[in-house]
Amino acid sequence: MTHGSLALFLDESASKFPERTALVHEDWTLTYRELHESSSRLAGLLVHHGVGVGDRVALSCPNTPWFTIAYFAILKIGAVVVPLNVLLKASDVAFHLDLVGAKVMLCGQGRLDHEPEVQALEGFRASRSETFIVLTTDTVALAPELSAHPTLGSLSWQQVEPRWETAHTGGEEVAALLFTSGTTGVPKAAELTHHNLRCNAEAGEVLFGADDMNPDTYLATLPLSHAFGQTVVQNTAVAFGATVVLLEHFEEHRALDLLELHRVTFLAGVPTMYWSLCDAVTQSAGLARKAASLRMAVSGGAPLAEQVHHDAHRLLGINILQGYGLSETSPVAAFSRIGYAPKVGSIGTPVPGVRMQLLEPGTWEPIRSVDPMAIGEIAIKGPNVMRGYYDDPQATRAILQDGWLRTGDLGRRDVDGWFYVVDRVSDVVIRGGYNVYPSEVEAVLCGHPEIERVAVAGIPDERLGEEIAAFVVLREGARVDADKIIAWARERLPAYKYPRSVTFLEKLPVSPTGKILKRVLGRGTSVTTSPRRSLEASNGEVGSLRSLDLIGPRTDG
After folding, report:
1. Residues near 427 by beta carbon (within 8 Å), at least 6 away in sequence
2. Which intervals hold domain AMP-dependent synthetase/ligase (predicted)?
């Protein structure tokens, strides 16, 4: 068993590689020595404000060095990190703070143009939390709404001793509370221990070839507030003394520029990001050279379409490795084997120390069939599985039994032991008594030459119970109509599977982490074909990366 605090990763890397670059954000660079000193100063400051072992400290901060500084400062004390998505609205912030009894809230930089910080403050004021601290030393650019609250500058944090001995925390103590997205109910907080998170980060050596003597340079495109970003990027990088280049908001051209500028070797993203990168290169082939330094690319989120996998290889020269995980599993549970021919569409095999099995849906009984096409609910057991949901024994009992965690994802296992996610239990459409898996329909529609992106969901139908509806984003310049898409699908799918309606959208609704929000698409009564229209991203949603093509935690709850 791996013992001790997750914060020891930073202590050890700062000791071994003090002058190696740890974090890069715009024109701000921190070495491991500087990161360690900054985290130690903040730890001392938090203790001065009454934070102690086991206290919950909320952290609402975009992808800047302040997130990592604060994350490890909280852990060094022996307190519990409660990362919040920066796009939460005030009411959601207050709900999350009170659900876990957060004592202190640390907020991002508080710039005048940052609405998220204002929402965070309003949420804090509506909660029972005691202290609100803005993570900035620049009080000149501070939003007026935040000026009445302490900042690191006003607290003279630079005068705090830059050394703080990491608390002797047991591996089974809770390190972080990560919220589920609440797509099937109210959000719950998964209790991840130091042991959970250390094991998952250390697995990077086997899964990704991480090596502290030949460290990678990571591009953090996804929120560090999410398990995917925390473990696969931040914690793995710190464990192996690697460099993280931080990107606050994904934009494909900016991402390509950073890949080239910093010679990034490791890219983790969601399918929508790879779509965007491929689109950018399609429009300007010369951009492909910007990704030339990449050693590894991994994708999490909704299933990665086979076409995107092939486009990324053809246009960017990268093979996107696939895997699987949940916030409740820290998040990595399965991964494609390095050195083996990729099985496009597979999430790989269980990572070392982890077991996976398929259950009869709705039961705890393993499926009896050995047919490689047999479908069951994926269950996971191993050192990565959460301790439970914070202060919710009923929800914990529903998902955990004898160390096994049921995921809510339907999957199958081939003869070589590789797993495939078929769909979410909750996404399955029951049309006239037939089970239809949206991912199968989406895979077919993605092959249409004029479709760029697509999502399939069930909509209410008086006769059949549910009907199949497709929500389509067309490629630039496409002129196909709904009837032609339906006819095209009808030729390639069984009668009970092809969509009866097509809605054209400018964008698919996604969470901040890029997951398509099918519950938004499926709302309301029946859907008929409609003119092309815009459905903007739902920025207030809590991000979730379930059903992966790499390591994307499913956080539906």
Report:
1. 437, 438, 439, 457, 518
2. 10-390
Q: What is the pTM for the complete model shown? A: 0.85
Neighbour tally for 357: CB within 10 Å: 16
For 499-539, write each residue's pLDDT tens digit: 999 999 999 887 766 678 887 887 543 333 333 322 222 22
Protein fold of 428-533 = GMP Synthetase; Chain A, domain 3 (3.30.300)
User: For 162-209, what is each residue's pLDDT tens digit?
Assistant: 999 999 999 999 999 999 865 455 789 999 999 999 999 999 999 999
In our burial notation (b when 16+ CB lie closer than 10 A, e otherwise), range 453-491 reads bbbbbbbebeebebbbbbbbbbeeebebebeebbebbee
Contact between 350 and 333 (Cβ < 8 Å) = yes
458: nearest Cα among 480, 474, 435, 481: 435
Q: How many beta carbons lie within 10 A of that of residue 519, not counting itself?
A: 16
Distances (CA, A) of 42 to 3, 36, 69, 111, 159: 24, 10, 8, 20, 11
- Best CA proximity match to 383, nearest among 146, 223, 198, 176: 198
> Per the structure block, which two tokens stand in for 268?
């983790």
Query: Between the CA of residue 185 and those of 130, 182, 429, 556, what are the distances in Å?
Result: 28, 5, 19, 8
Domain positions in the chain are 31-197, 428-533
Gap between the Cα atoms of 105 and 116, Å rounded:
14
Phi/psi for 445 (5° steps) reads -65, -30
Give the CATH superfamily of 31-197: ANL, N-terminal domain (3.40.50.12780)
Hey, is 243 helix, strand or coil?
Answer: strand
Residue type, 25: H
Which positions ≥6 away from 43 have C-beta within 8 Å?
A: 73, 74, 76, 77, 164
